Amino acid sequence: MFLNKRKAIFLISFSALIFILIINQVKSQTIKIVDGDTIHLNGEKIRFTGIDTPELKQTCIKDGVKDPCGVTAKQILIDKISNNSVECINEGKDKYKRILAECFVNNESLSSYLVRSGYAFAYRRYSKKFIPDEDFARINKIGMWSMEFDYPWDYRKSKKN
After folding, report:
1. What is the pLDDT of residues 29-44, one digit of tens each?
2. Which CATH number describes the domain made up of 28-156?
3. Which long-range contacts (C-beta less than 8 Å, at least 24 apart) are formed by 56-60?
4. From residue 2, how far is each of 5, 13, 15 by CA, in Å?
5. Cys bridge to 34: 38, 95, 109, 134, which one at CB 3.0-4.6 A?
């Protein structure tokens, strides 16, 4: 049985449309985790709004032993993102030209997750949104709240002097 010309064109067009829709849904992302609160997503530098994590070189003290809390914050983010797709809500740019955004994996805020894990702080100077998450971690002595630490903004300030 042969298809007439009109049916053949329709079938080819329909197949091409399905192919395009499938390709668009399977878009891959390139992601690089820079530190606990900064990622590169498809070539764009994104800084998480409303939180601050320890610097990569920052250490904390737990039971008299140095703990690489800055590296741990980055690793927690790497583990949380894993092979999942990241969605971000752009909230503008900062003075360093980074995109400020709240990012999500499986509809869970990465910022909230990091703060509740005790490896990020509510950056109250810019937002009050994550204070309940910080209170939870502090009260339950989770993450850095079980250690001696400098707030990231104090650590950065001490390194400038």
Report:
1. 899 999 999 999 999 9
2. 2.40.50.90
3. 58/149, 58/150, 58/152, 58/155, 60/144, 60/147, 60/148, 60/149
4. 9, 18, 18
5. 38
Question: What amino acid occupies position 94?
Answer: D
Asked whether the beta carbons of 98 and 47 are under 8 A apart, the reply is yes
Say if residues 39 and 30 touch (Cβ distance below 8 Å). Answer: no
User: Amino acid letter at 154?
Assistant: D
State the CB neighbour count (10 A cutoff) for residue 70.
21
Q: CB neighbours of 96 closer than 8 A, spacing ≥ 6?
A: 47
Q: What is the pTM of this model?
A: 0.81
Confidence of residue 72 (pLDDT cuts 50, 70, 90): very high
Which phi and psi (to 5°) does residue 114 adopt? -65, -40
* Predicted pLDDT of residue 17: 43
Q: What CA–CA distances, in Å, run from 68 to 2, 8, 28, 142, 150?
A: 70, 64, 32, 15, 12
